[in-house]
Write a structure and sequence with these properties.
74 residues; mainly alpha; single chain; 2 helices; elongated
Length: 74
Amino acid sequence: MKKRTIRNQEDLLAAIRRSESLAGSSPGSAQARELGMIRDAIKLYEDSIQVMRLAAKKAAAEPDEGVAGISGSE
């Protein structure tokens, strides 16, 4: 069983479909372990999207101040 990485919405939808097909797997089975890995990958993807949204919101709320210590006229 290879580690699953979700990089975009298409990957996310595929992971959700696969997890639905694995629902009800016997505890301790290979299918249950795969389901756990998929759930972890989905959580990681959703958390990363949330971080990016918060960063974008913060960037939009703050004026572009440039980088401290660099005047732009060197």
